[in-house]
Amino acid sequence: MNRLSQPPLSPELLSRTVDWAITTRRSMRAYLPTPVPLEEVEAILDIARFCPTGVNMQPWRVHVVTGEVKDQLSQVIAQLDDDPASSLGLEDAYEYYPRQWVTPYIDRKRQVGWELYGLLGIDKGDKQRMHQQHGRNYRFFDAPVGLLFTIDRVLQKGSLLDYGMFLQSVMVAARGRGLHTCPQAAFLKYHQVIAELLGIPFDQMLVCGMSLGYADESSLENSLVTDREPVSAFATFHHNNKESVV
Ligand SMILES: Cc1cc2nc3c(=O)[nH]c(=O)nc-3n(C[C@H](O)[C@H](O)[C@H](O)COP(=O)(O)O)c2cc1C
């Protein structure tokens, strides 16, 4: 396949397949130990690199961690995370979330949080179990492959926009191969130790992490299916200088 290739499917199957890959991408938080060949990971990155970027800057750098390196990284982060004296003052690589949470974002944040904890039977006040569940982030939810994405610090917000397209392309290409993912901002707090362990130079900033593997479809956490607002809630169609509602 190349950038001028003809579609490999009929128009109907093509749209259904692309739509399927986008719609069935969900953040999966439990994985089977089934290994993912590194050639498969490379093939996914090889597709994702075709996403668009402002003046074709292609700002991504990807660190793929598996095996002992992944385990060591997970262990070091877990130790820090379980020790408030070491982790309390740590600052995220950048501000991913808003400083001030307002409606409707705070409501959606709460909903997804309580839905996930509710499925797992974790009560609102159970800080220890919430911490434990959050800590599974640092084991990449037991996925066999962890991805850590970085960007050159000299770049601007626009390049983060480009980066988002790359991340989504990685996740969609993974779906096409029967794989699942979970993008993870949780790693941002531990960007310094990640940089040390992986030899990432200071001019690169951590953008996020990602778990990649075959999802454990039978796990409770993976039964979470998040909702979306309908198109009518966020799109306005303008025509003849009149707003029309869909
Ligand atoms: C950049 C980014 C960072 C995220 N960070 C985390 C994370 O650290 N841990 C986690 O469990 N989910 C994380 N998520 C997943 C979101 O919670 C999830 O995308 C959202 O709830 C919608 O659910 P869905 O992905 O299943 O459609 C992240 C998503 C994005 C896009």
Strand content: 5-15%
Helix count equals 9
Distance between the termini: 38 Å
Ligands (ions, cofactors included): flavin mononucleotide
Instruction: Indicate the overall shape.
Output: globular
Map the helices and strands.
Blueprint (H helix, E strand, L loop, with lengths): L10 H13 L14 H11 L11 E6 L1 H15 L2 H4 L17 H15 L7 H9 L9 E8 L4 H20 L3 E5 L6 H8 L5 E10 L17 H4 L2 E3 L2 E3 L2
Antiparallel strand pairs: 1-2, 2-4, 3-4, 5-6
Helix pairs in contact: 2-7
Task: Note down, in words, how this protein is organized.
The protein is 40% helix and 14% strand. The protein contains 9 helices and 6 strands. A 4-stranded antiparallel sheet has the order 1-2-4-3, sandwiched between helices. The chain is globular. The two termini are 38 Å apart. The mean pLDDT is 97. Flavin mononucleotide is lined by residues 26-27, 29, 112, 137, 182-186, 208, 226.
